[in-house]
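Could someone model flavin mononucleotide with this protein?
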Amino acid sequence: MPELADLRAAFVEGMSRAATFVAVATTDGEGGRAGVTVSSLTSVSADGEHPSLLVCINRQSPAATAILQNRAFCANLLAEDQQEIANLFAGRSATDRAERFDRVDWAAGDIGQPLLAGATASFECRLATALLWETHHVIIGRVNMVRLSGSGSALLYGQRAYRRAIHLDVK
Ligand SMILES: Cc1cc2nc3c(=O)[nH]c(=O)nc-3n(C[C@H](O)[C@H](O)[C@H](O)COP(=O)(O)O)c2cc1C
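Reply:
Sure, complex below.
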Protein backbone atom coordinates (compact mmCIF):
# COMPACT_ATOMS: atom_id res chain seq x y z
CA MET A 1 0.00 0.00 0.00
CA PRO A 2 1.62 3.33 -1.01
CA GLU A 3 1.89 6.26 1.41
CA LEU A 4 -1.16 8.53 1.20
CA ALA A 5 0.89 11.42 -0.23
CA ASP A 6 2.26 9.12 -2.93
CA LEU A 7 -1.21 7.79 -3.67
CA ARG A 8 -2.51 11.34 -4.17
CA ALA A 9 0.41 12.24 -6.44
CA ALA A 10 -0.10 9.05 -8.44
CA PHE A 11 -3.82 9.77 -8.72
CA VAL A 12 -3.19 13.32 -9.98
CA GLU A 13 -0.59 12.10 -12.47
CA GLY A 14 -2.84 9.26 -13.65
CA MET A 15 -5.81 11.60 -14.12
CA SER A 16 -3.63 14.12 -15.98
CA ARG A 17 -3.27 11.48 -18.66
CA ALA A 18 -7.00 11.51 -19.35
CA ALA A 19 -7.65 14.13 -22.02
CA THR A 20 -10.93 15.72 -21.04
CA PHE A 21 -13.07 18.38 -22.56
CA VAL A 22 -13.08 21.82 -21.01
CA ALA A 23 -16.33 23.48 -20.05
CA VAL A 24 -17.42 26.56 -18.15
CA ALA A 25 -20.29 25.98 -15.74
CA THR A 26 -22.19 29.26 -15.51
CA THR A 27 -25.13 30.26 -13.38
CA ASP A 28 -27.35 33.29 -12.78
CA GLY A 29 -30.19 34.13 -10.44
CA GLU A 30 -30.83 35.20 -6.85
CA GLY A 31 -27.62 33.47 -5.76
CA GLY A 32 -25.63 35.67 -8.14
CA ARG A 33 -23.98 35.31 -11.54
CA ALA A 34 -20.90 33.08 -11.49
CA GLY A 35 -18.85 30.73 -13.61
CA VAL A 36 -16.04 28.23 -13.21
CA THR A 37 -13.91 26.22 -15.64
CA VAL A 38 -14.36 22.47 -15.24
CA SER A 39 -12.99 19.33 -16.82
CA SER A 40 -15.49 17.22 -14.89
CA LEU A 41 -18.44 17.62 -17.28
CA THR A 42 -19.85 14.16 -17.94
CA SER A 43 -22.93 12.94 -19.75
CA VAL A 44 -25.10 10.86 -17.42
CA SER A 45 -28.09 9.80 -19.55
CA ALA A 46 -29.76 10.74 -22.81
CA ASP A 47 -32.81 8.62 -22.07
CA GLY A 48 -34.33 9.80 -18.81
CA GLU A 49 -37.34 12.11 -18.60
CA HIS A 50 -34.81 14.76 -19.68
CA PRO A 51 -31.19 14.15 -20.74
CA SER A 52 -28.88 14.65 -17.77
CA LEU A 53 -25.25 15.51 -17.08
CA LEU A 54 -23.00 16.09 -14.10
CA VAL A 55 -20.19 18.42 -13.07
CA CYS A 56 -17.98 18.19 -9.98
CA ILE A 57 -17.11 21.57 -8.45
CA ASN A 58 -14.96 22.34 -5.43
CA ARG A 59 -17.09 23.32 -2.43
CA GLN A 60 -14.98 26.48 -2.01
CA SER A 61 -15.87 27.78 -5.45
CA PRO A 62 -18.39 30.63 -5.33
CA ALA A 63 -19.85 29.17 -8.53
CA ALA A 64 -20.83 25.95 -6.73
CA THR A 65 -22.64 27.92 -4.02
CA ALA A 66 -24.40 30.04 -6.65
CA ILE A 67 -25.51 26.98 -8.68
CA LEU A 68 -26.97 25.37 -5.57
CA GLN A 69 -28.86 28.57 -4.71
CA ASN A 70 -30.02 29.31 -8.26
CA ARG A 71 -30.97 25.66 -8.81
CA ALA A 72 -29.94 26.08 -12.46
CA PHE A 73 -26.76 26.31 -14.51
CA CYS A 74 -25.39 26.04 -18.03
CA ALA A 75 -22.53 23.70 -19.02
CA ASN A 76 -20.73 25.46 -21.88
CA LEU A 77 -18.45 23.05 -23.74
CA LEU A 78 -15.65 25.26 -25.04
CA ALA A 79 -14.47 25.26 -28.66
CA GLU A 80 -10.78 24.71 -29.39
CA ASP A 81 -10.12 28.45 -29.87
CA GLN A 82 -11.48 29.37 -26.41
CA GLN A 83 -8.42 28.82 -24.19
CA GLU A 84 -8.57 32.41 -22.98
CA ILE A 85 -12.10 31.87 -21.71
CA ALA A 86 -10.97 28.68 -19.96
CA ASN A 87 -8.20 30.63 -18.22
CA LEU A 88 -10.52 33.51 -17.40
CA PHE A 89 -13.00 31.27 -15.54
CA ALA A 90 -10.20 29.28 -13.89
CA GLY A 91 -8.86 32.39 -12.16
CA ARG A 92 -5.72 32.30 -14.34
CA SER A 93 -6.08 35.87 -15.60
CA ALA A 94 -5.90 39.12 -13.66
CA THR A 95 -9.65 39.69 -14.02
CA ASP A 96 -11.80 39.92 -10.88
CA ARG A 97 -14.53 37.31 -10.55
CA ALA A 98 -17.19 40.03 -10.84
CA GLU A 99 -15.80 41.19 -14.20
CA ARG A 100 -15.44 37.83 -15.93
CA PHE A 101 -18.80 38.14 -17.69
CA ASP A 102 -17.82 41.60 -19.02
CA ARG A 103 -14.96 39.96 -20.92
CA VAL A 104 -17.07 37.40 -22.83
CA ASP A 105 -20.09 37.49 -25.13
CA TRP A 106 -22.99 35.69 -23.56
CA ALA A 107 -26.78 35.63 -23.61
CA ALA A 108 -29.38 34.24 -21.25
CA GLY A 109 -30.96 30.92 -22.23
CA ASP A 110 -34.61 29.91 -21.83
CA ILE A 111 -34.32 29.68 -18.03
CA GLY A 112 -31.95 32.62 -17.66
CA GLN A 113 -28.63 30.79 -17.52
CA PRO A 114 -25.58 32.32 -19.27
CA LEU A 115 -24.84 30.72 -22.67
CA LEU A 116 -21.30 31.65 -23.76
CA ALA A 117 -20.98 32.72 -27.41
CA GLY A 118 -18.78 30.43 -29.48
CA ALA A 119 -19.08 27.42 -27.17
CA THR A 120 -19.27 24.27 -29.28
CA ALA A 121 -22.31 23.20 -27.25
CA SER A 122 -24.19 24.78 -24.37
CA PHE A 123 -26.42 22.65 -22.15
CA GLU A 124 -28.82 24.70 -20.04
CA CYS A 125 -29.94 22.72 -17.00
CA ARG A 126 -32.17 22.80 -13.99
CA LEU A 127 -30.48 21.43 -10.90
CA ALA A 128 -31.76 17.88 -10.35
CA THR A 129 -29.72 16.86 -7.32
CA ALA A 130 -26.33 17.44 -5.72
CA LEU A 131 -24.15 15.42 -3.39
CA LEU A 132 -21.32 16.84 -1.31
CA TRP A 133 -18.50 14.32 -1.52
CA GLU A 134 -15.66 15.45 0.74
CA THR A 135 -14.17 18.45 -1.14
CA HIS A 136 -16.49 18.59 -4.16
CA HIS A 137 -20.17 18.96 -4.97
CA VAL A 138 -21.30 16.40 -7.55
CA ILE A 139 -23.99 18.39 -9.33
CA ILE A 140 -26.50 16.68 -11.62
CA GLY A 141 -28.52 18.75 -14.06
CA ARG A 142 -31.60 17.99 -16.12
CA VAL A 143 -30.97 19.46 -19.53
CA ASN A 144 -33.60 21.98 -20.54
CA MET A 145 -32.15 23.15 -23.86
CA VAL A 146 -29.04 22.59 -26.00
CA ARG A 147 -27.48 25.19 -28.28
CA LEU A 148 -24.92 23.98 -30.83
CA SER A 149 -22.42 26.17 -32.66
CA GLY A 150 -21.12 25.64 -36.18
CA SER A 151 -17.82 24.18 -34.96
CA GLY A 152 -17.77 20.66 -33.55
CA SER A 153 -14.17 20.87 -32.32
CA ALA A 154 -14.00 20.98 -28.54
CA LEU A 155 -11.05 22.27 -26.52
CA LEU A 156 -9.28 19.46 -24.66
CA TYR A 157 -7.03 19.43 -21.57
CA GLY A 158 -4.57 16.64 -20.87
CA GLN A 159 -1.09 16.23 -19.42
CA ARG A 160 -1.45 19.74 -17.96
CA ALA A 161 -1.90 21.51 -21.31
CA TYR A 162 -4.68 22.54 -23.67
CA ARG A 163 -4.94 20.30 -26.70
CA ARG A 164 -7.08 19.61 -29.74
CA ALA A 165 -8.29 16.25 -31.02
CA ILE A 166 -6.86 15.01 -34.30
CA HIS A 167 -8.23 12.30 -36.52
CA LEU A 168 -6.21 9.06 -36.54
CA ASP A 169 -6.07 7.25 -39.87
CA VAL A 170 -6.97 3.58 -39.60
CA LYS A 171 -3.85 1.46 -40.29
C1 LIG B 1 -8.70 22.80 -17.50
C2 LIG B 1 -9.23 23.03 -16.10
C3 LIG B 1 -10.17 22.16 -15.57
C4 LIG B 1 -10.68 22.35 -14.28
N1 LIG B 1 -11.64 21.50 -13.82
C5 LIG B 1 -12.21 21.72 -12.59
C6 LIG B 1 -13.28 20.92 -12.14
O1 LIG B 1 -13.75 19.99 -12.81
N2 LIG B 1 -13.82 21.20 -10.92
C7 LIG B 1 -13.35 22.22 -10.14
O2 LIG B 1 -13.87 22.42 -9.04
N3 LIG B 1 -12.34 23.01 -10.56
C8 LIG B 1 -11.75 22.78 -11.76
N4 LIG B 1 -10.74 23.58 -12.20
C9 LIG B 1 -10.23 24.62 -11.33
C10 LIG B 1 -11.11 25.83 -11.30
O3 LIG B 1 -11.43 26.32 -12.59
C11 LIG B 1 -10.40 26.94 -10.49
O4 LIG B 1 -9.82 26.39 -9.35
C12 LIG B 1 -11.34 27.94 -9.99
O5 LIG B 1 -12.02 28.52 -10.99
C13 LIG B 1 -10.58 28.99 -9.19
O6 LIG B 1 -10.99 30.22 -9.58
P1 LIG B 1 -12.04 31.09 -8.73
O7 LIG B 1 -12.05 30.53 -7.33
O8 LIG B 1 -11.40 32.41 -8.84
O9 LIG B 1 -13.35 30.96 -9.40
C14 LIG B 1 -10.21 23.42 -13.49
C15 LIG B 1 -9.25 24.30 -14.03
C16 LIG B 1 -8.76 24.11 -15.32
C17 LIG B 1 -7.76 25.09 -15.88
